[in-house]
Sequence to fold (738 residues):
Amino acid sequence: MRPVFPAIILLTFLGIATALKLGLDSEEDAQIRQTLASETESLARRLEHDFLNHVIALRRMASRLEQQPDMPRETWSQDARNYLEDFQTFQAIEWIDRDFVIRWVEPLEGNTEAQGFNVAFSEERLEALTRAQQQGSLDISGVISLTQGGTGLVVYAPVGAGADNNGFIAGVFRMERLADALIIPHIRGNFSLELLEEGDVTFSLPTQTATQNRFSHTTAANLPSVQWAVRVKPTREWVERYRSNWPWATFLSMLALGLLVSLTTLLVQLVLKRNQDLLRTRRDLEEEIDQRVAIQHDLERLASTDTLTGLANRRFFMEDLEHTLLQADRHMRQVGLIMMDLDRFQMLNDSLGHHFGDELLAIVSRRLDQLSDERIMVGYSGGDEFMVCQQHVDDIDDVIHLLGQIKGCFAEPFEIHNEKHHVTATMGVAVYPQSGVDADILLRNADIALYRAKEQGRNTYQFYTEGMQEREVRRLELDNDLSEALARNQFELYFQPQLDLATFQSSSVEALIRWNHPQRGLVPPVEFIPLAEESGRITEIGRWVIRAACQQIRHWQGTALENLRIAVNISGRELGEADLPEYLAQCFDEYQVRPQQLEIELTEESFIENVKHNHEQMRRISQLGVHLAIDDFGVGYSSLGYLRDFTVDLLKIDRSFITDVTRRHDDAIITRAVINLAHNLGIRVVAEGVETEEQLEFLKQHRCDMAQGYLMSRPVPAGDLPDVIARGLLPVSQHQDH
Fold:
């Protein structure tokens, strides 16, 4: 609405018109230069062609004289006159003897002063003619002053070479006649001409009219024994032939259009100005309506939104899910429901405080909310659980794509209180209608899939399938039986020997817990350890393992196994218990065992969960004399800083590297690098999962300290261990080798 706006439009069109005109002018200039270049190239090539014909004629005369050295002058003169008649460009044709003196000239008229003249009139010319005489090569004088008067060019064709040389046949060209015969007919009235030799103008032919110097073009002329270039400058008349009226017509048309648009804009402004008061009144009314609507939306949002995360609360999410399922049923569409909780959140919340947990939930919510659109709704269920509903699912790949987007929300670390924390999420997925026909059933089955995913490990997802509910019931039954298992001492330790590759004897074993369930039989740890971690009973189980290991060491005293060291695994939650060192010391005193006979294994992940606390815990445990080992090295966070900062006695290379160490080059490189790294830090190395003799041989060759795996022995009960060790851990062939 500003008055200056039409003026800006007019100036804009003026600028566009000017730019278009300059562009068209530039295109015309480029076309003119291209045409001029073509003319110049054609002129240079014509000069080369005609000049070469003259040189060939001179060589032909020289060859005839070489073959007939006693040729009479009259015969030679008649031959020369024939060439003069054929080639109108020659000023004269001369025969020069071996002493470089002109003896015969044709025609004699006008060239009498040339007869008897020594053409080697300077050291430069003497040197050039002598070289041509010896080599039998052509020599061209360049533009010189002629004895006959004026400037010209002399071409010397030697008659024979070396000792057989009989002088030269020379063709004398007067520059004006040469230019008139070879060049001027092609350019007269259109161009000025300059011949350049080594950058200097040696001859020029100006025009009678002014030339356009900015369109000049220079091209080299490929002439024997002389470096010439031809420079052509067009006249203004020639340039104007290639000009058109289109640039000016375009400029004026755009300027007229700009003027019309500016006037139209000015008229529109005048019309709009009359309606400003009405629009202002209407805008005030709309603002008041918007304020009331905003207040109403705020009230609705407060009723449907979680105050901490800003996401839809559970009640509103479930209402929306029910509505979504009704629509999906009507249109026969699928709906995806994802239940998600944060890995290790409870541990972080307990160790770093509730304020940390609230801030982490808020940041996670902001990242997840970026996925929300008309087809995706994100809600907060409570605790560390979130819900995501995906409408209009055409294919299961749509859900998998969304799962990838959710994982991407956790790719970058979360910065809280100036510290970065890596947090991951585990997800369970239920798809309507296959996994449930109403909101409650769908939510329950997504929750079952979530627990199933937790059993598989963290930072993963699991789809609900038929039979999961039975497994969930079994999981809950096992969870309930765990309490009785501890009270009734249903757990048992199995032991897997570790082979010392220096002595080929077993100096240590790893203790592995088994559950002797009264109804289900022997339950492997993979089925009940995750349940114990979720319920918090992992600490009780871990302490049972420590006490049972100390009991076993005491039981072996006075036997062949009295010096065996037992390695036990503890979780990050157990390491977080402040009284763990005191409990270890209490067990040592109670069972009268040396702390050096116990080894504690921790995963890499356990080290970084609470670095400051864990560092102090491990220092206190190490001071007791207990050996400390890193389990599953290479598959966790692999931050080598803790190898420097923590007291570590042993590294256990994960079985995933050992399985293909003899077949995959990269696994072999990583294994060798870990062994060398550990040895350089004074740390011993154990390789897990050794199952073949080839793997064992590789480890021996690269100085691995110990090996553990089925090749030596499977985990066995304590009662079977003495026989296993007495029998020997290596295959027969290995015993024979050593």
Summary: The longest helix spans residues 4-67. The radius of gyration is 51 Å. The domain at 477-737 is CATH 3.20.20.450 (TIM Barrel).
